[in-house]
Automatic annotation (TrEMBL):
GO biological process, one term: amino acid transport
Organism: Panacibacter ginsenosidivorans
Membrane topology note: Multi-pass membrane protein
Protein name, entry field: Lysine transporter LysE
Highest taxon, organism lineage: Bacteria
Length: 211
């Protein structure tokens, strides 16, 4: 029973972490709307696998992370540059768009699983997120430092990530269909989210404690 409790704690933390509107969640909506749910699920699985890797890295390698801050700092600045570039290009593409067309990130033949993997990998903010939560849960003895509990917690977090993205897939698809939103508007929204994500990451890099 205790292990199932650990699983659901992991699920809840990860699910709630996916609820705020972000680049990965809105991309899952775009894939569902502009392509199909099969591709959206592949994307979600790719996102979840990388998040699980980041989580395990955090749980088992806190000392290693602290000793290799430079690596995550470089990745953080790379994220700022990539998201800012994608945001600007998305706005320009939406402004010039005269016919219905796919979003910038989807206008390619890249397998959606690999798209999910790459976008999740370019989201190093997951490291401090999981660092804070895992430290809190360990300090309060909710999560014990052993292999079995870490496994249940990790599986729960992976399921929570996929559940959160599924909410955006189906809920977002329903809302956009209901409102008859054009892809031009959706692409503009995506551009805005990229810009906000870039500025939020920039704030963390300059004024916040990223690691």
């Amino acid at each position: 029973m205790h292990y199932f409790f650990i699983f659901w704690i992991g699920w809840l933390v990860s699910f709630l972490g996916q609820l705020p509107l972000g680049t990965m969640s809105i991309t899952s909506t775009q894939i569902a709307v502009q392509e199909n749910f099969k591709h959206a699920w592949r994307y979600a699985i790719g996102v979840a696998i990388v998040e699980i890797i980041y989580l395990r890295l955090t749980l088992f390698s806190v000392n290693w992370i602290m000793q290799h801050k430079l690596l995550f700092q470089v990745l953080g600045w790379l994220t700022v540059a990539v998201f800012l570039t994608l945001g600007i290009i998305s706005f320009v593409s939406a402004w010039k768009q005269e016919t219905e067309k796919k979003a910038l990130l989807l206008d390619n033949n890249l397998h959606r699983f690999l798209l999910g993997v790459s976008m999740s990998a370019l989201n190093p903010a997951q490291i401090p997120f999981w660092f804070i939560w895992s430290t809190y849960l360990l300090d309060n003895k909710v999560l014990l430092s052993n292999f079995t509990e870490f496994n249940f917690f990790t599986f729960g977090c992976g399921a929570g990530t996929i559940s959160g993205l599924a909410l955006y897939m189906y809920g977002g698809n329903w809302l956009i269909t209901k409102m008859n939103t054009s892809t031009k508007t959706l692409n503009s929204v995506m551009g805005g989210i990229f810009i906000i994500a870039a500025l939020a990451q920039l704030y963390r890099m300059i004024w916040g404690k990223f690691i």
